[in-house]
Amino acid sequence: MDMGLKGKSALVTAASKGIGRASAAGLLAEGARVVICARDLEELEQTRAELMSHEGEVNSFVADVSDPDQLKKLHAYVVEKYGSIDILINNAGGPPPGGHQDLDDKAWQDAFNLTVQSAIRLTNLVLPSMKNAGWGRIVNISSYSVRQPMDNMMLSNSLRLSVLGWAKTLANEVAPHGILVNTVCPGWTNTHRVASLLEARSSAEGITTEEARAMIAQNVPLGRLAEADEIANMVVFLASNAASYVTGVAVPVDGGISRVV
Q1: How far apart are CA 256 and CA 218, in angstroms?
Q2: Could you give the 3-state DSSP secondary structure of residue 207?
Q3: pTM above 0.70, yes or no
Q4: What is the mean pLDDT of each run of 10 residues along the chain (261 residues)?
Q5: Rg (CA), the chain
Q6: Which of these, 15, 19, 101, lies nearest to 61 by C-alpha position?
Q7: Rounded distance, CA 143 to CA 146, Å?
Q8: What's the CA gap between 243 and 34, in Å, rounded?
């Protein structure tokens, strides 16, 4: 199937590893021109070098998505390179774990900037050119926790739902301009983020990380954690012409772990 992405310009944030990296690779494989961003220069450049073997064009820019000034510089860089942004993949490392009593005002504000404001601010920057073009794709990377909250993940459970409400409302507002806004909700996936959560769980419960992984996998109907490219497949689909009548949805890609229909 021709996904209609050849020559399209895309920005993927938090793309030096994990789902962001896999999403960038998927877009490049379809011939898109992609800018990847992350906070760590060394990791970012290594990822860019690895992605250059794909058909499309890839560039990189160091940015912390929780910083509004850096987002403006990132946007300016992409516009300088490609003229406009057709596809925005809003992705960010998840906020730290913790329960209600573990979190102070700063923790909430930092998580809000990372999880909610980063998506809103970048979207505000790209919308004018998408409206002018009459075509655009905004895909947010979230979590299955928007359907089924996870224990000890107060920040993520709360703020990802905020993004979901914002995205659904925005989708209705920009649909007349040919702009589609959707959210991908991954389940447990083999990423650095999940590896750190497994390490924390193993330490707290006095078990090995493999035992912690097995405990999670047994609750997934498919019996395993996902690979990042399995999540990226849905991201690429929602960014493509193949999803031309899909907007305002939150799609679980979670192996069946969320029990809500």
Answers
A1: 12
A2: coil
A3: yes
A4: 91 97 96 96 95 87 97 97 97 88 93 96 98 98 92 92 97 98 96 86 88 92 96 98 97 92 71
A5: 18
A6: 15
A7: 6
A8: 19
Class at the top of the CATH hierarchy for domain 9-188+227-253: alpha beta
C-alpha span between 32 and 11 (Å, rounded): 10
Angle of helix 105-112 relative to helix 154-174, nearest 10 degrees? Answer: 30
Cβ–Cβ < 8 Å for 21, 58: no
For the chain, what percentages of helix, strand and coil (3-state, to nearest 5) are there?
A: 50, 15, 35
Edge-to-edge strand ranges of the sheet holding 87-90: 57-62, 33-38, 9-12, 87-90, 136-141, 179-186, 250-253
Q: Which residue has the tokens 């991908």?
A: 184
Amino acid in position 86 = D
Q: Where are the domains of the chain?
A: 9-188+227-253, 190-225
* Cα dihedral sign, 134-30-143-187: positive
